[in-house]
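Ops channel
N.P.: pipeline sanity check, posting one input/output pair.
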């Protein structure tokens, strides 16, 4: 399947997730309740959630530093591709948050879903998950090694879980974020081939 076809599938999945009915909403809440504890204070999951911001920057900086030191153009290009992927994901995620305007579960179901910190933006899709999956997919596309792809996707999945553990997002938010991140990475990969060849 060509990259444009993959992107169409990803965005179709996002649209289906966003237009779920009341039964799907109840399932969303039920799954979230089973993950989210009354006191979501595990530092493991809190730090995993926070890592969505600094891991991609660290990866891109490492790629760029290695590319400069070793005079490796491919590594420098990979660094830019990582940043482009994350940038596309952030912009698309924020646009969708504004468009769908979904209230976060910690506010919508304050007697059932618990969070220890405030969140100012909307819920759908999960921006943290988008960034994590954009990064993981970009690494998988750049290096095509299982020992890079597997840990990258394990980390991204951990970020997605942490957002539900903390009561910040519904399961459908993180699924949409994952799909959006994968789509962002494929679009960045395609653009990078055009820009850097």
């Amino acid at each position: 399947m060509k990259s444009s076809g993959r992107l169409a599938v990803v965005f179709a999945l996002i649209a289906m997730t966003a237009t779920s009915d009341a039964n799907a909403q109840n399932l969303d809440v039920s799954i979230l309740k089973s993950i989210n504890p009354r006191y979501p204070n595990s530092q493991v999951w809190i730090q995993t959630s926070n890592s969505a911001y600094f891991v991609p920057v660290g990866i891109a900086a490492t790629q760029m530093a290695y590319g400069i030191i070793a005079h490796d153009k491919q590594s420098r290009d990979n660094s830019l591709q990582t940043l482009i992927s994350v940038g596309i994901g952030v912009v698309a995620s924020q646009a969708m948050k504004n468009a769908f305007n979904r209230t976060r579960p910690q506010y919508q179901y304050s007697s059932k879903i618990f969070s220890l910190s405030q969140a100012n933006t909307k819920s759908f899709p999960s921006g943290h998950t988008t960034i994590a999956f954009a990064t993981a997919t970009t690494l998988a596309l750049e290096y095509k090694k299982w020992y890079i792809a597997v840990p990258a996707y394990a980390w991204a999945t951990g970020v997605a879980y942490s957002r539900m553990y903390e009561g910040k997002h519904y399961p459908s938010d993180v699924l949409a974020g994952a799909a959006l991140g994968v789509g962002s990475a494929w679009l960045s990969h395609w653009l990078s081939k055009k820009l850097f060849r």
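N.P.: looks fine end to end. The mean pLDDT is 88.
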